[in-house]
Protein 1
Amino acid sequence: MRQETLKYGSKGRNLLTYSDRGEQAIRQGDSEIAEAWFDQAVEYWKQAIALTPGNYIEAQNWLKITGRS
């Protein structure tokens, strides 16, 4: 997903931040905080996908796999 994020510009940087902080929270054992960060990333992905539905296939798969779509 990181490669797709880079194509999304400044919002992509937010996505990286949200995703990275979510992963960091998981490593620290704080799943509640991790979910909050991932929820923020989801909102950005949904916006990106709505703007360009044919792009971000990996993100669309991640949303489906994690039950966030």
Protein 2
Amino acid sequence: KNQVEQSPQSLIILEGKNCTLQCNYTVSPFNNLRWYKQDTGRGPVSLTIMTFSENTKSNGRYTATLDADTKKSSLHITASQLSDSASYICVVSALCSTGT
């Protein structure tokens, strides 16, 4: 059964502090993992896309890590700002295979 779980469900931090969001998944076979930021009333915006071979990817103050062996990812936000107040979504895509 393919599942994706994020933690924590909600988080309150002081402006300027760092924070980390976690994503655990059981999706197999794994294709890629994406982190999105969604502001209230707006559509999700892609922060990063990671494939099996990538361990770390940065996008400004956002740094995503991926451990494909333990099926875990984290999104680290450095020096948080008021504009970081949003929903963060972890999406894991399975690798589709076609039978003959």
Protein 3
Amino acid sequence: MLKAGIGLTKNLKFLEEVSEKFGKDDEVVVGCQMGKRSKMATEELVNAGYTGITDMAGGYAAWVKSGMPVKSNA
């Protein structure tokens, strides 16, 4: 998703950009802040034939809430 004004719009080059960095069998963890955008991205990748995709369900917020480790530059 890309910022568009005050909202978000779908990145029409998403699959193209992913394919430049990852192969269809690479292990990739997809995450975002709350989990909604990563779920959409994961579904799009799987539908495009990517096999090593894992969605970080609940996003970064769920990761922190569950007590998983985080690193801060502060």
Protein 4
Amino acid sequence: MTTATRQEVLGLYRRIFRLARKWQAASGQMEDTIKEKQYILNEARTLFQKNKNLTDTDQIKQCIDECTARIEIGLHYQIPYPRPIHLPPMGLTPLRGRGLRSQEKLRKLSKPVYLKSHDEIS
């Protein structure tokens, strides 16, 4: 990992912790705010700990992009949780045939950046 990438990752980590410190739940209730702050901190720790040994620059860049997207989506929608995607089970039509394996592949390829690691840690 280059020093510029390392600084970018550490900057994102600090940004998440600052965001968690200032976070207010959309409902305005203190219990929800505490629960959401705790979720933000636990999610950040888990994902950063899981990815701390990455050496491939493409994977690191993908993780940085995911982190940035989740921060921006959380700020925009005022929810710390990833927004789910809603696709019907056979909603993606493959080019040839309607095989289940090709549906799963298309579903995996259509997953947004901000949900790439969500299924892995849930």
